């Protein structure tokens, strides 16, 4: 799973430098927090999906790490909407990052100043209007487990912790797989893939690992939970054992960049990448992010009126 697009530009906050010094603490130690947010074309113009939910999580990540900054929700919203509006693409991926440009060593984050930059990627349209589903991926269970919740809070999206994901993904790719499933270090149960949450279907029931097992509370994960309930699908969060994963009829991954991606196998155990539950949820997701259905959920924010943050 990866971002289908290329970087257009980086929008730097006027309060910070125009660029990231190589010697900055964020570059040297991975001391930055970020979000990944999608902008989609709708009948009312480009709109950002679940903007405030992402920005609240960004603020939460900064708070948990003790990162000092001068941003609140309205100011972050204004900066991200402005970046999206000047990106030149109706469909894009936005990455707001709170980072420190200070070129100092050390890991006491209270000593540094943190500012915002927003990177804008142009995305290839995933919704061609044909209803075609994405190709399936081959997964393997990684020997590299997620960090324990007592070592690092799993709800913090920090740049430095993605080295753990890179380790597992790179090892899986070297063995011919597309991605890896990582386990909780204490329980040994399924946590998440390297950069996405996991869903599986057994006996018509949709299940995703509960948050107790060292996984990020993904916003796309929450979107799928809400949409599945709207569709009348039996869905639950709970403990997921490896046997559940290997015996599942359907398995799919969810994340902001790649959206919903079905699996064809996990370590040789075949799954249906065109299963009925995945097809129903994927169609609902495509409609929700483009404002064709579920508009009453208030998930879309138009980019054309950044100061009003107009809902559609």
Question: How would you portray this structure in words?
Answer:
The structure is a single chain. By secondary structure, the protein is an alpha+beta fold. The chain has seven helices and 16 strands. The strands form two sheets. Strands 7, 8, 9, 10, 11, 12, 13, 14 and 15 form a nine-stranded mixed sheet that branches. Strands 1, 2, 3, 4, 5, 6 and 16 form a seven-stranded antiparallel sheet that branches. Helix 5 crosses helix 7 (276-289). The mean pLDDT is 92.
Percent of residues in β-strands = 25-35%
Shape: globular
Determine the mean pLDDT.
Answer: 92
Helix fraction bin: 10-25%
- Could you say which structural class the secondary elements and strand pairing correspond to? alpha+beta
Write the layout of secondary structure elements.
Blueprint lengths: L4 E8 L12 H5 L3 E2 L2 E4 L6 E3 L1 H15 L7 H13 L6 E8 L15 E9 L13 E5 L20 H13 L4 E5 L6 E4 L3 E6 L2 E5 L9 H12 L4 E4 L3 H5 L3 E6 L3 E8 L2 E2 L5 H14 L10 E3 L10
Helix pairs in contact: 5-7
Keywords:
312 residues; 7 helices; single chain; 7-stranded antiparallel sheet; alpha+beta
Task: Produce a short descriptive summary.
With 312 residues, this protein is of the alpha+beta class. The protein contains 7 helices and 16 strands. The chain has helices at residues 25-29, 51-65, 73-85, 162-174, 219-230, 242-246, 276-289; strands at residues 5-12, 33-34, 37-40, 47-49, 92-99, 115-123, 137-141, 179-183, 190-193, 197-202, 205-209, 235-238, 250-255, 259-266, 269-270, 300-302.
């Amino acid at each position: 799973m990866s971002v289908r697009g290329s970087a257009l530009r980086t929008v730097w906050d006027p309060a910070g430098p125009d660029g990231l010094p190589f010697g900055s603490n964020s570059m040297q130690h991975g001391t930055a927090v970020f979000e990944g947010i999608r902008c989609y074309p709708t009948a009312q113009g480009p709109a950002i999906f679940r903007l405030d939910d992402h920005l609240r999580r960004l603020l939460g990540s900064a708070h948990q790490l003790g990162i000092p900054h001068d941003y609140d929700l309205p100011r972050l919203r204004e900066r991200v909407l402005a970046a999206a509006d000047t990106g030149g693409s109706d469909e894009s991926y936005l990455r707001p990052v709170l980072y420190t440009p200070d070129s100092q060593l050390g890991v006491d984050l209270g000593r540094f100043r943190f500012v915002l930059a927003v990177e804008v990627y142009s995305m290839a349209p995933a919704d061609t209007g044909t209803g075609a589903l994405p190709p399936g991926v081959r997964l393997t269970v990684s020997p590299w487990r997620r960090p324990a919740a007592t070592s690092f809070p799993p709800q913090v999206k920090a740049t430095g912790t993605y080295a753990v994901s890179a380790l597992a993904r790179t090892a899986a790719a070297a063995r011919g797989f597309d991605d890896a499933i990582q386990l909780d270090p204490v329980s040994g149960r399924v946590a998440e893939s390297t950069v996405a949450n996991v869903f599986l279907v057994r006996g018509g029931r949709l299940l995703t690992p509960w948050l107790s097992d060292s996984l990020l509370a993904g916003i796309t994960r929450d979107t799928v939970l809400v949409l599945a309930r709207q569709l009348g699908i039996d869905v639950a969060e709970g403990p997921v054992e490896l046997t559940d994963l290997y015996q599942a009829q359907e398995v799919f991954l969810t994340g902001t960049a790649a959206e919903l991606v079905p699996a064809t196998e996990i370590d040789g155990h075949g799954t249906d990448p065109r299963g009925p539950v995945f097809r129903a949820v994927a169609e609902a997701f495509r409609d929700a992010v483009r404002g064709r259905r579920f508009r009453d959920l208030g998930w879309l924010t138009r980019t054309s009126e950044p100061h009003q943050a107009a809902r559609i």
